[in-house]
């Protein structure tokens, strides 16, 4: 996937280049051109009732340049709604009955072409980050025809990445999965001819855990992962199911855009990418174990080096992104433990489908490492992977980790937890 800049669609632009691409939403076949054309306030914060309403708002922005913040209603609580109204947005619910606006007390002039994203809120309350279609559209080179699956919540950075691809390029069709279809998405995808799909590691792990055979029936040629740390275990599991597909992982955020793209099937990126300056491409560096990115795809007002809040470790010539700085490091009796690396050891066990690693208060040491796991379903080939108990998993970790990093408690869950963002908040 080539990362490059795109042209900006100004107010009253003609329809975007992908206007006749096929869209499948809730089983209904549409195109960008056939979407409804409501009149939206400007500036507007659209709370989309469903995927088709979110796509409608995206197309309206592409054509008219309306200043737009797009989200689902569940991501905008009462405090955020008040904050948006105070910032001069008309907060509008968009549903089958039309546009239902709540006007701000002090209206303001719109900023033409501005798109606003809400961050995931992983480090606190969600923040607004400004973009345009130009900075959100990162794939500009000609692409082979694809039918993409889009499982993301409307208005998130990952959602815009898939949507802008379909908006701006002919032959990039879109099958949108609503939340109530997530558990059965492989059936929908196989029926609709999906051959490219983007999702978080949690999204892929849940699918493999729930029905790997159904997933294998989807004719995927492109698999993309992002939004969470990507470890070797999930890459290897997907490669086993799809030996000929291109499997890519992407590091991207609302603040710095799509900054790292890796296609070699390995977790992390080569250490020689650090501090490499190439015109038009992000520059990656590490400061105090934190990933720092200088990106041409940054949000408004975020030029220059941006400290991402993500912790990295260099192992065997690869730079591994292990998790958030505020949650990845566990101090056990003065020794630092990376929760992400312990998680990687646990998910490397053939019978573990998912793991979460945290710290818990403990006498003397201050903190100890604990974990939750979901065990994989039986191997359909009949191979005996063994169903480990807590003691067996502790021994597995003890053989691969220093003593202070071994989990002291491991709890088994019956399903992989997931948030609206398709993350497990690890």
Automatic annotation (TrEMBL):
Pfam families: AMP-binding, AMP-binding_C. Residues 345-420 form the AMP-binding enzyme C-terminal domain. Signal peptide: none annotated. It comes from the Bacteria. Keywords: Ligase. Residues 94-284 form the AMP-dependent synthetase/ligase domain. InterPro entries: AMP-bd_C, AMP-bd_C_sf, AMP-dep_synth/lig_dom, ANL_N_sf. Belongs to the ATP-dependent AMP-binding enzyme family. This is Acyl-CoA synthetase (AMP-forming)/AMP-acid ligase II. It comes from Micromonospora noduli.
């Amino acid at each position: 996937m080539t990362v490059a800049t795109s042209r900006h669609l100004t107010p009253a632009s003609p329809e975007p280049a992908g206007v006749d691409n096929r869209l499948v939403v809730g089983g209904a076949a549409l195109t960008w051109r056939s979407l409804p054309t409501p009149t939206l306030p400007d500036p507007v914060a659209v709370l989309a009732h469903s995927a088709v309403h979110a796509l409608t708002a995206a197309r309206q922005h592409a054509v008219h340049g309306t200043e737009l913040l797009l989200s689902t209603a569940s991501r905008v609580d009462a405090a955020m709604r008040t904050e948006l109204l105070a910032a001069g947005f008309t907060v509008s619910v968009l549903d089958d009955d039309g546009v239902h606006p709540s006007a701000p007390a002090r209206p303001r002039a719109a900023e033409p072409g501005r798109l606003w994203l809400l961050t995931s809120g992983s480090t606190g309350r969600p923040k607004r980050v400004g973009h345009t279609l130009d900075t959100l559209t990162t794939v500009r080179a000609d692409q082979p025809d694809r039918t993409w699956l889009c499982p993301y919540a409307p208005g998130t950075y990952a959602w815009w990445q898939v949507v802008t691809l379909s908006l701006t390029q002919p032959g990039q069709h879109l099958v949108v999965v609503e939340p109530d279809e997530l558990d059965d998405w492989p059936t929908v995808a196989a029926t609709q001819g999906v051959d490219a799909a983007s999702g978080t590691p949690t999204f892929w792990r849940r699918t493999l855990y729930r029905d790997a055979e159904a997933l294998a029936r989807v004719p995927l040629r492109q698999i993309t992962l992002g939004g969470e740390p990507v470890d070797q275990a999930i890459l290897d599991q997907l490669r086993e199911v799809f030996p000929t597909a291109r499997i890519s992982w992407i590091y991207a955020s609302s603040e710095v855009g799509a900054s790292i793209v890796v296609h070699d099937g390995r977790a992390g990126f080569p250490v020689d990418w650090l501090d490499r300056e190439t015109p038009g491409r992000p520059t990656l560096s590490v400061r105090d174990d934190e990933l720092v990115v200088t990106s041409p795809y940054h949000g408004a007002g975020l030029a220059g080096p941006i400290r991402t809040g993500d912790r990295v470790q260099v192992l065997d010539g690869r730079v591994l992104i292990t998790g958030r700085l505020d949650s990845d490091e566990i101090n056990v009796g003065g020794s630092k433990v990376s929760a992400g690396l312990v998680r990687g050891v646990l998910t490397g066990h053939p019978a573990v489908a998912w793991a979460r690693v945290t710290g818990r208060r403990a006498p003397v040491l201050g903190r100890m490492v604990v974990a939750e796991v979901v065990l994989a379903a039986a191997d359909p080939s009949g191979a005996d992977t063994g169903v480990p108990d807590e003691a067996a998993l502790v021994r597995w970790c003890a053989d691969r980790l220093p003593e202070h990093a071994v989990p002291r408690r491991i709890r088994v869950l019956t399903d992989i937890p997931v948030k609206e963002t398709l993350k497990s908040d690890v």
